[in-house]
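User: I'm writing a tutorial on reading structure tokens. Could you give me a worked example: one chain, its sequence, then its tokens, then a sentence or two explaining what the tokens reveal?
Assistant: Sure. Here is the example chain.
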Amino acid sequence: YNADFDGDEMNLHVPQSHQTRAEVQELMLVPHCIVSPQSNKPVMGIIQDTLLGCMLFTQRDTFLERDFVMNMLMHVGNWDGIVPQPAILKPRPLWTGKQIFSLILPQVNLARKNQTHPDNEDTPMSPGDTRVYISNGNLVCGIVDKKTVGSSANGLIHVTWKEFGAKRTDELISEIQVLVNHYVLHRGQSIGIGDTIADDSTMRVVINTINAAKQSVQELVNKAQNRALVLLPGKTMMESFETEVNQALNSARDKSGSSAQGSLLKSNNIKRMVSAGSKGSFINISQICACVGQQNVEGKRIGYGFHRRTLPHFVVDDLGPESRGFVENSYLRGLTPTEFFFHAMGGR
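And here are its predicted structure tokens:
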């Protein structure tokens, strides 16, 4: 309900006849609300730690020892008592995560592309294991992520609901969470400060990118002061100037962010969460590692709150990036007092 404690209220309606109770049960029972009639797709799916766990559990290099497999089978909801044949027999038996995951799947068929599937790849077999194939309830290949077990149309949740109904879908969601959370509990998953640090060469690229952007903003300031700026259609000199400055600074943030993201390894814990779809995005990585970027209030750069300046710490009529809310530091490096103040303004 997204309620918080700043004056939010709720109302309770009590059904008072058998007919009303039956109607409310039919309309409001949770399994009956898995697929929304508004968009004809699920509104419930696997999220957060379980979603990340699904990705880790179904990777190609996830192998489980006999004792752990026995433990996991105890967390399979309606296990039939048959231990599957291990994928590797010698020198010791090893099971894959996909085998155990298949035990809780209903008898459905599904072919999906993973979130990280490259656009230019159209081969039936995927080198990065980004094509998910489920054949008759058996996960043949593919890493399971948000596109498969999230609330997307024609994902696993939706297909199960269409083929087997609401009750079975409800059971599937619960079984995935019980099984996968047990795996995550044993495997462990955390983020350290090491996950936020890019290498030296990347940091040099970031610093150069930001300096180049500041230089181009300075050139724009000079042009505007000399009335040499080319006006954008339907905009005044000042509006054109602000638009161009914003573009320059935002592209600096995005460029420095891409180089920072490119330098992180596949095993990086933040990158893992982004690629699973459980938390975070490209912009979070770029702000943590590279540069927080321009802070806006009501869609504009920080305006003059003082006489012809933003704060008393800047000179009058300063149009440069720093005095108008551009944060060139990353969260890792920390913000200066003025950057912190502008960031607080943008945040509310």
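What the tokens reveal: Residues 237-263 form the longest helix (27 residues). The longest strand covers residues 131-135.
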